[in-house]
Structures are given as structure tokens and as C-alpha cells.
Amino acid sequence: MTQTTSRLLATALSSAMLMGAFTAAHAGQASFVIDAQSGQVLEASNQDELNYPASLTKMMTLYLAFEALHEGRLTWDQKLTMSENAESKEPFKLAIGAGRQVTLREAVESIVVLSANDSAVAIAEQLGGSEQAFATVMTGKARQLGMTNTVFKNPSGLPDPEQVTSARDMATLGVSLMRDFPEEFKLFSMRGFQFRGMKLRGHNNLMYRYDGVDGIKTGYTDASGYNVVTSALKDGRRVVGVVMGEKTASLRDDKMAGLLDSALPSSSTATASTTPGKQPGATMTDMQPRK
Questions:
Q1: Which of 55, 157, 231, 255 has the lowest CB atom count within 10 Å?
Q2: Beta-sheet strands, E only, within 68-224
Q3: For residues 150 and 11, is the Cβ–Cβ distance under 8 A?
Q4: Which residues are catalytic?
Q5: Over the stretch 78-127, which tens digit does the pLDDT of each residue have?
Q6: pLDDT of 218 above 50
Q7: Could you give phi then psi for residue 284, rounded to 5 degrees?
Q8: Is the pLDDT of residue 158 over 60?
Q9: String of b and e for 57-80 (b: at least 16 CB within 10 Å)?
Q10: Which CATH number belongs to the domain containing residue 187 in this structure?
């Protein structure tokens, strides 16, 4: 076990006593917008209430993957084996079959674009040995970053009643990814990617409809409602916004667009006729359910 992993485990274990104090989370509506450069809070509503993160969880999985890359514990071309456990994670996955391999780059891109659960588990098992051990490291890193209300129990965001977070904590994680891994953060602007001959399109429709949005992650489960963390840049101002607990993807996206209108007064939404295929880097195959 590396010194880094040992330190994170110690941090997480020291915070484990907090878990018992948490009340049950729920799909409550919450929002938070922060200026990523100054730290100024621009909007906040129920920002510290506990909610379920759903696939926003994968932001931390990717944070730890990027950290491992910088520390030399992973390489972009490294092969990850899909275990039977990873292969079992429905519904969003690469579905290549247990025992087969993907590169770390393929795993990361599939998480960014498709929110692939099997790829998240493959990264977790490579770095932590198991989902449970990796989740402990995730919680430890959350504490280091100042995410005081967050507990992770798995790397994918699949339902677990003890996996909780808040809108403020998710904004903290978004800003941390941007600050600590600026080059890797650019991957969150991917609107699609090609995987072994297939063109795959992502879930984040705000990148098509709102000028200045360049990521980062959507999420949904029945328990969480529709969540999103969004990064946007306009006229030199960078903001990170969070919306949690909305009833539909459209309501979530509309709520975020309204928040961005307030935070970035000079921005404007794209027209409804915008064609995804004419956006830089977009791919056109859209066989994924809206998330």
C-alpha cells in the first residue's frame, strides 16, 4: 500500500464516526453556484442538505484516477480488466464482458461521456482492490478537499442509502477537479467519443444548448432525482453550478440555465435549432437514454 493510500485511509477512518450522525438523505431540491476563481457564492438554496449524488459520484472516481496518473500509479495506456462485479453494473456500461480489458483512457472517456458504471468499478478495483476499499479512500479525499457532508460507498453512484453528499460539496469537488487537474479537466467537455468502431453521444445536453458550458457531469437515480454539476465560462468569469433533486432532466437543465443567466449576465442560450453534429468534437450516434 502506498503512503498516499495509507494517508487517505487514515483520514477516511477518522471521519467514519460522522457517518452515524447523518440523517437519511432524500431527493430534495438544492442548488449552489460559486465563482470558481474568487470563491464567491453567487446562489445557494438548501446547499448543505443531504442528497444522493447518483453518478456525480464518478467525479471523485475520476479525481482519484487523475491523481494516480500524476503520481505514476496509472498510465493512460494501462489495461484494466473488467471483473464480473464490474460487468454486472447496470444500466450504463461499455458491456465488453467480464475478463476483457479496456485502457484507462477508454475507461475515463466512457465515464465522462456515457457515465459507464463498469469503467468506474474497473478503476476502483485497480486502485483500491475492491469497491469498498476504494470508497473509503474516496471519502478520505472528500474530507481533504473540504467536503464535510459527503460519504462515498461505491465508485459509480449506484444506489446506496449511506452514500450522501450536498450541493455545496459537489461544487467543491468540481472546483477541485478544475484546479488540481486543469489538463484532464478538459475531458469533461467531450460530447461524444468513438469506442471500437462505435460513435457514442453523451448525456449532458447543457453543452449543446448553453453558450459557455464546458462540462461536467450529470446524474440520476430514482432516489436522487436529476442532478447536474456544470462548469461555464463567459467573458472571463468561470462559475461552477450544482442542481440536485429535480423531477425531470428538462427541469434540471432549465434550472441550471436560469442560474447561469443570473451568474453570467452577458451570456445567452443557444437556439433550439442547434445541431449537435456541428458542435466541435460532437458525435451523432445517440442511442443512450436521457440522463
A1: 255
A2: 79-81, 101-103, 192-195, 198-201, 213-221
A3: no
A4: 55, 58, 115
A5: 999 999 999 998 888 887 888 999 999 999 999 999 999 999 999 999 99
A6: yes
A7: -105, -15
A8: yes
A9: bbbbbbbbbbbbbeeebbeeebeb
A10: 3.40.710.10
In this predicted model, which residue has the larger pLDDT, 23 or 246? 246
How many domains does the structure of the chain reveal? 1
Q: The sheet that has 41-45: what strands, in order across it?
A: 41-45, 30-35, 237-246, 225-234, 213-221
Decide if pLDDT at 181 tops 80.
yes
Q: Copy the grid coordinates of residue 57.
A: 459520484
* Residue 204 covered by a domain: yes
- Domain residues for the domain of 138 are 30-263
Output the nine-digit C-alpha cell for 142.
472528500
C-alpha cell at 226: 436529476
- 219 close to 53: Cβ distance less than 8 angstroms: yes
In angstroms, the CA 208 to CA 176 distance is 24
Residues making up the annotated binding site for substrate are 217
Question: Do 212 and 264 touch, CB atoms closer than 8 A?
Answer: yes
